[in-house]
């Protein structure tokens, strides 16, 4: 049983070493790995991935053109609705209720659009990505290295104990025979 535990302790240390090497390889260039893996699994364009991974002023927002077109369309609808309200309500007072309803729906749509713009922005996701990488590559690596060190020390001490125990046991047995040769008239002999 002790040899099985010995093999398991050295085997677990080998697994921890492999995990530390793999994690250090990942932490050397995480952006490339994340970009290749995400692109292979999801099929997203490299421009979108680059935008969210780097989140700098130099990288063009791939959604900016579409967002600008939508913002212009919303502004255009607002101005046309305002013009319709100004021209049509004096001639058709019953249409005021419908125009107010359309304005309310347009305001909700514009609010949802602003939430969408905030969600599409790379800052929040990039901050979470960087925080996750820091936690994994610094704290996780440090914890894994400490685990590896203590696993090594415990495996080494257990190996020493398993290898030295048979010799020590033989010596203890030999010493017991030395104590059997006691003299009866010795004043220091325990009674």
UniProtKB/TrEMBL annotation:
The chain crosses the membrane at residues 144-165. Pfam families: Tweety. It is found in: Cell membrane. One of its GO terms (cellular component) is smooth endoplasmic reticulum membrane. Its main location: membrane. It is a multi-pass membrane protein. Calcium-independent, swelling-dependent volume-regulated anion channel (VRAC-swell) which plays a pivotal role in the process of regulatory volume decrease (RVD) in the brain through the efflux of anions like chloride and organic osmolytes like glutamate. Probable chloride channel. Homotetramer; disulfide-linked. Homodimer. Belongs to the tweety family. This is Protein tweety homolog. The lineage of its organism: Eukaryota, Metazoa, Chordata, Craniata, Vertebrata.
């Amino acid at each position: 049983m002790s040899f099985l535990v010995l093999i398991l302790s050295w085997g677990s240390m080998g697994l921890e070493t492999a995990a530390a090497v793999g994690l250090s390889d990942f932490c050397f260039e995480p952006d490339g790995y994340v970009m290749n893996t995400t692109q292979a699994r999801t099929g997203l364009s490299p421009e979108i991935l680059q935008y969210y991974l780097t989140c700098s002023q130099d990288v063009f927002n791939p959604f900016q053109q579409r967002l600008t077109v939508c913002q212009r369309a919303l502004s255009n609808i607002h101005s046309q609705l305002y013009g319709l309200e100004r021209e049509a309500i004096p001639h058709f007072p019953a249409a005021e209720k419908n125009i107010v309803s359309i304005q309310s729906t347009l305001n909700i749509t514009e609010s949802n659009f602003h939430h969408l713009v905030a969600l599409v922005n790379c800052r929040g996701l990039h901050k979470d990505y960087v925080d996750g990488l820091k936690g994994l590559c610094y704290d996780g690596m440090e914890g894994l290295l400490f685990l590896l060190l203590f696993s090594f020390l415990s495996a080494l001490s257990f190996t020493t104990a398993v290898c030295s125990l048979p010799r020590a046991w033989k010596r203890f047995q030999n010493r017991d025979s030395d104590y059997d040769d006691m003299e009866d008239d010795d004043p220091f002999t325990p009674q």
